[in-house]
Amino acid sequence: MKKLNHKQASIWASGIVLLLGLSFLIFSNPKEAPKPSPLVKVASVKRQDMTEHLNLIGSVTASESVAIRSRLDSQIVEVFIKDGAVVKKGDRLFQLDDRDLKAQLQESEANLQSNQAEVIRSEKKYNRDAELAKRGVAAKEQLDQSTQSYQAAGAALKATQAKIVQLKTQIDYGDIRSPIDGVAGTISITEGNLVKANDTPSLVVINKVDPIYVDIALPQRYFSMVQSNFKNISVDIRNSEGKSLKVGSIAAIQNTIDVDARTITLRAKLDNADHKLWPGMFVDVLLGVRKINKALVVPLKALMVTQKGSQVYQVVKDKVVLKPVTINFSTPSEAVVDADLEADDQVIVEGGFNVKVDASVIITKDNTP
Fold first, then answer.
1. Mainly localized where (predicted)?
2. The domain containing residue 306 runs over which residues?
3. Residue 232 Cα distances to 227, 253, 268, 336, 359, angstroms
4. Which of 205, 272, 301, 306 lies in disulfide reach of 210, CB 3.0 to 4.6 Å?
């Protein structure tokens, strides 16, 4: 083999270096393959009636409550109810010892007959003396005496009649009955005990629980919204697990705002025949303060909050379009908005972080990226 001289060797070396450089440039900058369009999940925009709700706390209170007390100084001789009894208006609760009152009544009724007889006798004498005085036969002093006797007999009759009414009323007081329908509390005094008129504590408290009230503390900032339409506002009473117990309406609004808490009390009235609500309970209240008919509704997952406001990605012919929205109110899963959208428009609910405006996307067949 012919040996290369120095000049030829240099040419060969330069060629090899050039080939290596070209190879590096070719293989270090391959043509990038196009990226696939991102997968997204979409949901349809809806038009439907929606109600804005406030989550508040309510306190259950009896619609009527009466503390039963004695109106006499006496002794309890019989108790007709048990603790927690359901009572009707007019049901007997307690009987007080009324024997002395009944004895006084019998005496007064006997006196009444005597008084009536005396009135008749004195009236006849007065009429006779008046006729004699008219003829000039009887002296004026005799007529005056007859007049006084007649008037005294009439006054005595009225006093006895009043005494009888008073005694009958007191005897009625001894028969203590429920003034309302309701549920009795625990009985604080038993048979044989002495009681005093209007003494405290009460003998028992009767609470009317059907219907029942729920008092709701409404923040002041919502007052104007509620005040103008409170009779049409729905009240959904829920337990601690979020289960609906009762649905009712607002019956009244308190006439002043609490200056410390800056709340105003709403009173809801609800049917409670099943006694699911009980005075003293605290309950969760879902207050429907505003209804929008044919509202534009989007899934809450479609919303994006940016420095420019709330937005959604709409998919139009597999292309991404950015739409600004104004949120009116939201539920745990949806939002009522104002936007340039219509019912059945498709908005992205998953995969939105991987898309760009005007870029293509792929909606998966099962709609689960």
1. membrane
2. 40-50+293-363
3. 10, 13, 12, 20, 47
4. 272
